[in-house]
Amino acid sequence: MPSLPARYSRSIDWITVGIYLLMVFVGWLNVYAASYSPDAPSNAFSLSFSELMQFNWFKQILWIGTAVVLIVVLVVIDYKAYDTFAFGLYGGMIVLLLVTMVIARPIAGSRSWLELGPVRLQPAEFAKFTTALAVSRFMASTNLRHQHWRDHLVLAGLTLLPPLLIIASNETGQALVFGAFLLAYFREGMSPLILIVLAAAGAILILALLVPKLWLVGAFTVMLGLVFLFNSRVLRHHLPLALSVWGVVIGMVFGVDFFFNNVLQPHQRKRIEVLINPSADPLGVGWNVTQSKIAIGSGGLVGKGFLEGTQTKFDFVPEQSTDFIFCTVGEEWGWVGSLVVIILFMTLLARVLYVAERQKSVFGRTYGYCVASIIFFHFAVNIGMTIGLAPVVGIPLPFFSYGGSSLWSFTTLLFILLAIDAYRKQDLVR
């Protein structure tokens, strides 16, 4: 019987591990560049530990080191434990989110950080992998294509409870990530009609902010009328449904103003206004995005060079080592470097989907698709907000952004999948 490390050395997916290590290394280089100052001492060895702890690049080294220890723990744990204790981990995280709401100190208007001495952790980051485990466990026990409506409610409850608690802590960006789970549910048999309806609802809400409401209502009414005009059978059999849909659309169009003015907070309204009209507040809420686009555009084809970014050096872009780390890539490495980073993410996503598809169990496959969905959402939205294509919602770029909570959560998310995959030839006991 081979030892546990020997078995893992043969069955672990080393290609994915290699992509992970490369991304973490490239991410650290950009954190270093984003926090680099020409006035800082050139010899780091001459500084004390307390002095080094003032630099994000040094603290990120510590986070990477602890992430390596975390990886060892994740792959040594019996792979069946992730299935067996999925609901327990989920319940523990719900309790932790509730505790965070009560005891966390407000930081930038949000009660989402737990402070343990010099270390700050954000439980919302870790809620992603516990929710992924819980929904995967639940879906392994039922067939989504033939679920009773009560099963759909249970799945919706498991998915929505964490983001509702996160929103209650005033951390809207992290809550939006949980919408990515729909992609995993779609793979397991959820009706595509649900995705179509949600996409259509989103498009209607966006259009209601961009065009006059009467025009939008008129266009939808004309489209509905044309359907009935050219297909009388639809008129006979689906008139009540069509009128109901028409009423819902009208309600959404005219209700968007109430939601925008009475539900969203002032800073959230400003971010949407800046997305629609980038010149609305260039020196206020729009400052980050404006400076980010300047930094990325100034990089040109091949960039200004490592540590040569002027936007980076002089702190024109706030949060440049965290949420806006991609503008450092664009400025110093240019279009070529940005393309390489995007290719790295696409390669990782393709590999995760490949690993998910070769699982023998529904639990492993569903969890793999949850991993891919979460990483894709972060990747797409983070880069989108740095170039002005998405509102600034404050979510990190996986494996690139500075921060221990982000690195630990994505490392945990990925390596639980690799631990399950290492034993894919053994069916999970359900």
From TrEMBL:
<keyword id="KW-1133">Transmembrane helix</keyword>
<keyword id="KW-1003">Cell membrane</keyword>
<dbReference type="Pfam" id="PF01098">
    <property type="entry name" value="FTSW_RODA_SPOVE"/>
</dbReference>
<feature type="transmembrane region" description="Helical">
    <location>
        <begin position="241"/>
        <end position="260"/>
    </location>
</feature>
<feature type="transmembrane region" description="Helical">
    <location>
        <begin position="12"/>
        <end position="37"/>
    </location>
</feature>
<protein>
    <recommendedName>
        <fullName>Cell wall polymerase</fullName>
    </recommendedName>
</protein>
<dbReference type="InterPro" id="IPR018365">
    <property type="entry name" value="Cell_cycle_FtsW-rel_CS"/>
</dbReference>
<keyword id="KW-0808">Transferase</keyword>
<feature type="transmembrane region" description="Helical">
    <location>
        <begin position="193"/>
        <end position="211"/>
    </location>
</feature>
<feature type="transmembrane region" description="Helical">
    <location>
        <begin position="57"/>
        <end position="77"/>
    </location>
</feature>
<dbReference type="InterPro" id="IPR011923">
    <property type="entry name" value="RodA/MrdB"/>
</dbReference>
<dbReference type="InterPro" id="IPR001182">
    <property type="entry name" value="FtsW/RodA"/>
</dbReference>
<feature type="transmembrane region" description="Helical">
    <location>
        <begin position="164"/>
        <end position="186"/>
    </location>
</feature>
<keyword id="KW-0812">Transmembrane</keyword>
<feature type="transmembrane region" description="Helical">
    <location>
        <begin position="217"/>
        <end position="234"/>
    </location>
</feature>
<keyword id="KW-0472">Membrane</keyword>
<keyword id="KW-0328">Glycosyltransferase</keyword>
<keyword id="KW-0133">Cell shape</keyword>
<keyword id="KW-0573">Peptidoglycan synthesis</keyword>
<feature type="transmembrane region" description="Helical">
    <location>
        <begin position="399"/>
        <end position="420"/>
    </location>
</feature>
<feature type="transmembrane region" description="Helical">
    <location>
        <begin position="89"/>
        <end position="108"/>
    </location>
</feature>
<keyword id="KW-0961">Cell wall biogenesis/degradation</keyword>
<feature type="transmembrane region" description="Helical">
    <location>
        <begin position="333"/>
        <end position="354"/>
    </location>
</feature>
<feature type="transmembrane region" description="Helical">
    <location>
        <begin position="366"/>
        <end position="393"/>
    </location>
</feature>
